[in-house]
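Section 5: illustrative case.
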């Protein structure tokens, strides 16, 4: 799974990884893997680097960073 690979590698390099997931089962899996999970609107103000692995260009939008 791509998310697991990227998040594990980033955490291994010392990153504070936050997962933003809309699928409840995948979000639960991320929590069980030890990651913080929150909506994009909550993660945007505290994040420095964002990477989307969905292929959807509308996941991270301007309004997430306007506050």
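Designed sequence:
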């Amino acid at each position: 799974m791509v998310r697991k690979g990227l998040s594990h590698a980033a955490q291994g390099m010392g990153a504070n990884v936050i997962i933003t997931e809309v699928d409840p089962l995948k979000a639960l899996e991320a929590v069980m893997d030890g990651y913080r999970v929150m909506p994009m609107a909550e993660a945007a103000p505290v994040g420095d680097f964002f990477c989307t692995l969905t292929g959807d260009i509308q996941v991270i939008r301007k309004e997430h960073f306007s506050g």
